[in-house]
Amino acid sequence: MDAMISLDSDTAILNCIDLSEQDISKSVRLLKQACLDSGFFYITNHGISQELMDEVFVESKRFFHLPIEEKMKVLRNHNNRGYTPILDETLDPSNQINGDYKEGYYIGIEMPGTESRTDRPFYRPNLWPSEEVLPGWRQTMEQYHKKALEVAKAVSRIIALSLDLESEFFCKPDMLGEPIAVLRLLHYEARDSDPANGIYGAGSHTDYGLLTLLATDNVMGLQICKDKDAQPQIWEYVKPLKGGLIVNLGDMLERWSNCIFRSTLHRVIVYGREERYSIAYFVEPSHDCIVECLSSCKSESRPPKFPPVKCATYLSQRYKDTHRDLS
Q1: Which part of the chain is the Fe2OG dioxygenase domain (predicted)?
Q2: What pLDDT, on the 0 to 100 scale, is given for residue 324?
């Protein structure tokens, strides 16, 4: 029987893919169904130890519990590295009265020799809290970043096979060979969301890139809308999975697949006055990668829905759309 996870009628039923499964055809079938149905699924046995995942959450809390003056010393720069305060990001400006009631921290991939290159903003050096203030913090985040990229590549191979591509299609040098991969620590305030009045932990949005890996604590909050064109929209909670990761597809994969695969709307709704923590890992191809409709996903009756776009151009615009001081 195929692995699925459910809670109740208000909770999404998602496929669960075991990355240690020897029958790759089973994994491809489960993932393809998830990509067609919802764009969200779980993965287990992914290779990141529970000890490391727990450590990342502990270190994340250590940072967010610092005085605001200390956090502001590593305030996000224009290369999107560092700390993002409460209300800094507005993911759904048409429905939000303020920004998101969350704070975050961006950690990207560093590539030597790009410090002064204006065409490589997503490979610039990271901002790090002082070692005196948070000893060992950087090392923990760099270790998780490295492990998460390995997991993302493993998932990308199954995605490629589900699109009838070679398994290494997304791992080529101009794609995940030099990825724009961003680890983002997130902390949601203990503030009740009120969607009817435009108050959200995180507003409704789709992710920008190829895929996202998400680790969460045990506090419910993530919701998905499988049909963004439905009126009214139907929102379902995604249940946390201890030790597992939630995976969702991004806009670039939707463009590659000509909308066959879903980049699904999601948001965070926080109730009960509980703080919520999550660890998101956003994976995009290299700066110069041209994202365009795959030949297997277009035909005379199904022409490409989007023009080709360079990855860095698309990402830069999306950040400007959602971060107040970049717009």
Answers
A1: 179-285
A2: 62
**Cα dihedral sign, 25-172-246-162:** negative
Please indicate, yes or no, if residue 134 is contained in any of the structural domains.
Answer: yes
Angle formed at CA 136 by CA 132 and CA 137, multiple of 5 degrees: 90
327, part of any domain: no
Given a cut of 50, the residues of the chain with pLDDT beneath it are 1-2, 5-9, 326-327
Q: Is 298 helix (H, G, I), strand (E, B) or coil?
A: coil
Distances (CA, A) of 156 to 58, 86, 147: 29, 32, 14
Q: Collapse the DSSP code of 24 into the 3-class scheme (helix H, G, I; strand E, B; otherwise coil) and give the result.
A: helix
d(CA 238, CA 146): 26
Q: What is the pLDDT of residue 3?
A: 53
Are the C-beta atoms of 276 and 64 separated by less than 8 Å? no
> In 3-state terms, the chain is what percent helix, strand and coil (to 5)?
30, 25, 50
Peptide bond into 232 cis (omega under 30): yes
Our count of domains for the chain comes to 1
Residue 231 lies in a domain: yes
**Nearest to 297, CA basis, from 262, 256, 251, 253:** 256
Query: pLDDT per residue over 75-130, tens digit each?
Result: 998 888 999 999 999 999 999 999 999 999 999 998 877 666 666 778 888 999 99
Residue 130: both structure tokens together:
């002082």
Q: What pLDDT, on the 0 to 100 scale, is given for residue 116? A: 63
- Can you spell out the DSSP letters for 158-173? HHHHHTTS-TTGGGST
pTM above 0.90, yes or no: yes
- Distance separating alpha carbons of residues 284 and 264, to the nearest angstrom: 16
CATH number at residue 70: 2.60.120.330
**pLDDT the model gives residue 271:** 85
Which domain covers residue 178, as residue numbers?
A: 4-322
